Amino acid sequence: MASEEVRSKIINSATKQFIAHGCRRITMDDVAGELHISKRTLYEYFEKKEDLLMACFEQMKEKVGETICLFKTQCSSPILMALHIYKYLSVYNAQLATLLSDIRDYYPDIYTRLFPKDAPMHTSHMYQTLQAAKEQGDLRPQVDIDLAVQTLTEIIQHFNYNSTKPNIIRMFCEAGYTFVRGLLSVDAIKRYDEQESHIKEMLRDN
């Protein structure tokens, strides 16, 4: 079996175990045993557990990126795409709650690399998205774009990755989702709801 194929199988198997049980309880022995390979073979690909964890998160990040690209092709407007992304991340991060909690508590260096405190806010992108949505008639007429951007920025700024609450990421995504949905016009909400079932099927197929 080609080395890249073996590496991919290790990452896929380890990711499932880490998500299901957290990374504290899963050992390198567990990963090797699940795949029926020797521990020596496992260490040929990953010198330590931290390296395997980072490889798993890099792959998860790539898959999230691919899903967001699918949203871009399926959604009828940038604001509806943003709404779907918030909802998707809320559900996705809920599945990762145990793993993220373990990473934060037992591998703080990895956690800092995954969620840097100085991550950009992308305020200008939020403004452009809302402005385009308003021009397309996707927002309620009385929406103040400057105030809406300020509110979204505050939501992000108050999102603390060092919180002791394991579901804080989901709370952040749900807050963003609820706020953005509240900005939409009635027609835009109808279009979003029509797209939602189709996108759920699309995600299951992928």
Question: Would you write up a description of this structure?
Answer:
By secondary structure, the protein is mainly α. The chain has a single domain, classed as Orthogonal Bundle (Tetracycline Repressor, domain 2), CATH 1.10.357. Helices cover 76% and strands 0% of the residues. The chain has 11 helices and no strands. The longest helix is centred in the first third of the chain and has 26 residues. The radius of gyration is 20 Å and the shape is elongated. It starts with a helix and ends with a helix. The mean pLDDT is 86.
Name the beta content range: under 5%
Fraction of residues in H or I helices: over 70%
| CATH structural class | Mainly Alpha
Indicate the overall shape. elongated
Oligomer: single chain
What is the count of structural domains?
1
The CATH architecture would be Orthogonal Bundle
Number of helices: 11
Question: What is the average of the pLDDT values?
Answer: 86
- Rg over C-alpha atoms, rounded to the nearest angstrom: 20 Å
Find the CATH topology.
Tetracycline Repressor, domain 2
Secondary-structure-derived class: mainly alpha
Q: Sheet with the most strands?
A: none
Contiguous runs where pLDDT drops below 50 for at least 5 residues: none
Order of helices and strands: HHHHHHHHHHH
First CA to last CA: what distance?
Answer: 25 Å
Strands, total number? 0
